[in-house]
Structure formats: structure tokens, C-alpha cells
Amino acid sequence: MLNFLKNVFKKGELRRKVIFTLGMLFVFRLGAAVTVPMIDANALSSSATSSGIFGIMNMLGGGMLERFSIFSLGVSPYITSSIIIELLSMDVIPTLAQWQKEGNNGKKKKDTVTRYLTLCLSVIQGGSLTYAFDKGYGILNNPTFWTYAYVVLVMAAGSMFAMWIGDQITIKGVGNGISLLIFTGIVANLPNNFLTTYDTMVSWKNMSVAARTTAWYALFVLAYLAIVVFVVFTEGAIRKIPIFYASNTQTIMRVKEETHMPIKINSSSVIPVIFASSVLAAPRTIISFMDSNATTEMIDNILDYQQPIGFVLYVVMIVLFTFFYSNLQIDARKIADDLKRSGGAIPDVRIGDDTKKYIGKVLNRVTVVGSLFLAIIAAIPVMAPVIWTATSDNALSLGGTGLIIVTGVALETVRQIKSILTRNEYHGYIRR
Predict the structure, then answer these.
(1) What is the pTM of this model?
(2) Under CATH, what is the fold of the domain 12-201?
């Protein structure tokens, strides 16, 4: 580990990238501590941003919604707009579908549309959040139209600035900038969550109680680490499909340097969990601001994934969204066409439609395992308090969306750093 860090800061190019990334993340966290002017953040209770769609946004923003900071929207509008544009590019809007096939030029056009949509969603989300929290908790010091407009403008500007920071990290720094912003927000709260959990679980009434509760806390930390290891193992698991390329004579098959096509067990990352949580949380959030009656209570109980019916819906939706997003991320037909153009083939599989069907079949089989993995990790925070009552009031939950995000982003960033190190060593060897 020490040698790895030494190599990172020893290489000039990589050192500049890492320092730039850390500097931009520092700016992001600095802004996260600044509350939007004209807002009384103390009026927000912790319960207001701990459940429903607000809880998801607060988790993705690393607690910034609790403080109603200038970055309280975070990169959520950008993520939402990116998903919308990707879905509309699936032959829903012909123009977007055409851009999908134009390579880098088409990608630039889609990015421009995504940014305009991000701005629109930032204004809509900022206005909705401000109105909902002001009606529920009275967070505005002077609730006039111009106050609303000013607060929404600041929140939208903060979201666009956060998106710009993410883009700059991706271009000039290390790792995916948007993912690193989410990662930073979650990790920033981990030390405080561990301390809060310690205060909740450990009691010092007498020595025997202290010893027993400390042992329970140590067991809790070990369980947390075991789940981290499980997530890391699964995130790195891949299914290799062997690929062979024809030689110049077109009669003999030979193997190139890249001899397989990897398909990740969890190719959809944490998106299905966020989708499922959002779909269940959005109606509950809306009815929470309505007058309580038998109908709203029934809907709230059905969609609450901590209740039996809601939990089943939650798991089923995670599985369905995993299959949908995995097939969206990995286009079997496009891969088959690319292999055909490059002279590649899968052993014992005919080129063309048979290759597409084979890749699709392998992807679906792998996705079964990936969907079960996501369902298990997402279900642990719900099931743990039922099985282990001592964890019911903890600030730090076992498993969950945040853990998948943190481990996935950390692994991907480390892989990119190692790739840069390897490339620098290769170039140095060539120069010598």
C-alpha cells in the first residue's frame, strides 16, 4: 500500500492529476457546508431528510440536504437527465437514436442536450424541495415569490457547478468525476456515523454491560467489513467470453492479445437499487404532504419497503431493473456487429445472429447472479434490525446503496490509477 502511494506521487503526470482531483473535491465539500441564504436549516429535523425520496437525495449528496447547502441537489439532476436521455435514445426519439450511432460527434450533441435538461430538472427539483420543506417545516425566513426565486436560482447554480466540477475531474483528474462527488459525500459522513453508532450501541453503566456492548459493537464492525469484502469480491467478478480472430490467410484462427470479452456480474452497478427506491419513495413523499386518511395510509403501508408487501415489491423491482439496465448497458447486437467487422468470433458460435443470441444468453445468466447480489445487499439494512435488534437505531446501516457506491467507485478509481502507472512505465521503457 505504501509503495502504491509512493508510486502515485512519484510520477509527475499522475501526481498532478491526483492533486487536481483532491483540490476539486475540497472545493465541493467546502460548498457543501455553506447553507443557502435566506434558509433556516435548523428548522429541518433529521427525520425530514432520512426517509422517502429525500432520504435517497440526502444519501447521494452525503447529508447536504440536511443542511440545505448550495450543493443540496448535488449531481442528482444530472444523473436523472442522463438516464432519461439514454432511455429516449433507444429508438424512442429518432434524432437521439441517430446521434447514438454518430460516435464522438453524436456524443457531444447528446451531452449538450443532457446539460440543458439538467438545468431544467435543477430548477424543478429546487423549487419542489423549497416549497415542500417550507410548507412542512417553515425553512424560509421570508416566504415571498422573490425569496423562492432566489433560493431556486442558488440551488440550480450549485447543481450546475457541481456537474462542472465532476466534468473537470473526469477530464483533468483521476476517475469518474460524477461518481467521485457522490463517493466523497458518502465517505465524509462515515467517521461521524461510526462514532454515533458507537454511542448508540455501547453503554458504560458498569463494567459487565460495557464489556458486553463493546463486544456487540466490535461484532457489528466485523459484520460491516465482511459485507464490504463481499461487495468488493462481487464487483470484481466477471464472466469471460473467449474471442478468436482470423489471421490474414482467413483459413487459420489465431488468438490476439485480447482473448476474451469480460462481462461483469454486476454490470448495472447501483442504478437498479436507486430506481427501485425512487419509484417506491416518490408516491410516499407526495402523500406525506397531504392530509392523512385511510387511502393515504394504505398507500404508504403498501409502498413502505420496511413492511412485508413493500419489501417484496422492492426486491422484485431491483431484479427487474437490473435486467433492464444490464441489457441497456450491453448491446448484444452492436457487439456482434463489431466482432463481425473486426474478424472476431466466439468459438463454436456462428457469426451474426447466433453471436448476438449467445451474448444475450450469457448476459441474462450473469444478470441473474448480479440481481440477486443487489437484492441481498439492498435487503440487509431492512432485515438486519429485524434479526439483530441492536442495530435498529444505528446511524450506520449494514449494506445498502451507499456501500455499493463507495466500493464500486473506489475500485474503479484504483484500477484507473494502476492503468496510468502501467502506461507511464511502458512509455519510460520505450524511451530507454
Answers:
(1) 0.78
(2) Preprotein translocase SecY subunit (1.10.3370)
